[in-house]
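We were asked to recover a plausible sequence for a given structure. The inputs and outputs are reproduced exactly as logged, with field labels preserved.

PROBLEM: sequence recovery
POSITIONS: 271
GIVEN STRUCTURE:
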């Protein structure tokens, strides 16, 4: 019995180590292996601008308050559930981390750094950005024929077709958590679990024009506010971001699963 028991323990240990190694490989970014995502937004947040808020004494306002109370209860439960699996998670510190992640995303998108983007956004958003960057590169190649080259063999500045991008210069207000959710893809018992945190980020950005390789090209278009660094216009844009983490990810890496720029609903949104 003792030998059988030891053999069973050794088998269980090997299975556990194999499972742990498989999970690590699944989330490895080496050799082009991508981390997996849920592919869905469990409970899309419904944003209502201040001007569309219902009248204080109306029935709609009463319903909204009830819905808000239910949403807060769900967020509290999901926050505890996520923290049970991701010990580093805290709704107190997450807003600052969300701003850092958002800034890193904007920097990587501006420079066309696909390797960095792979760890910052989910597969749906990444695929859309890769197609956009590929199309830009193809157009840039077509716009630079030999006849457009100068005496030293370099393309003329007028021959380069730039693309617009953003550089985060600051934040108008601190980021705010709107809601927290968790869910499973597949059955609850065997499916993969995910945590999702919806955050309102209100950033100030410089509108820059970049060429191949992410080099900033000074823009001739200027609006009310001008950034002295690049001579480019600056704008203030609120964004609703959904950050997602796989609950069995050993590195607990949060990635952006959805981006919604308020005022341009649907821009850069992928699921």
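RECOVERED SEQUENCE:
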């Amino acid at each position: 019995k003792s030998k059988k028991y030891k053999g069973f323990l050794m088998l269980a240990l090997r299975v556990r180590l194999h499972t742990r190694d498989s999970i690590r490989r699944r989330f490895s970014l080496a050799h082009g292996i991508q981390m997996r995502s849920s592919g869905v937004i469990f409970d899309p947040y419904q944003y209502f601008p201040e001007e569309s808020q219902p009248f204080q004494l109306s029935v709609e306002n009463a319903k909204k308050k009830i819905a808000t109370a239910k949403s807060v209860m769900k967020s509290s439960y999901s926050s505890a559930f996520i923290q049970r699996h991701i010990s580093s998670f805290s709704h107190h510190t997450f807003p600052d981390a969300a701003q850092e992640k958002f800034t890193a995303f904007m920097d990587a998108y501006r420079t066309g750094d696909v390797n960095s983007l792979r760890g910052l956004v989910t597969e749906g958003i990444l695929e859309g950005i890769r197609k956009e960057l590929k199309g830009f590169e193809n157009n840039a190649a077509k716009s630079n024929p030999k006849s457009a080259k100068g005496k030293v063999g370099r393309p003329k500045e007028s021959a380069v077709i730039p693309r617009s991008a953003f550089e985060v210069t600051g934040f108008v207000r601190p980021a705010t958590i709107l809601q927290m959710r968790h869910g499973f893809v597949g059955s609850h018992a065997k499916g993969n679990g995910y945590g999702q945190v919806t955050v309102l980020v209100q950033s100030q950005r410089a509108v820059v024009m970049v060429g191949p390789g992410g080099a900033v090209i000074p823009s001739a278009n200027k609006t009310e506010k001008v950034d002295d660094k690049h001579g480019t216009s600056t704008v203030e844009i609120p964004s609703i971001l959904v950050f997602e983490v796989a609950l069995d990810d050993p590195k607990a890496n949060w990635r952006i699963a959805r981006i919604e720029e308020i005022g341009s609903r649907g821009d850069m949104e992928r699921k």
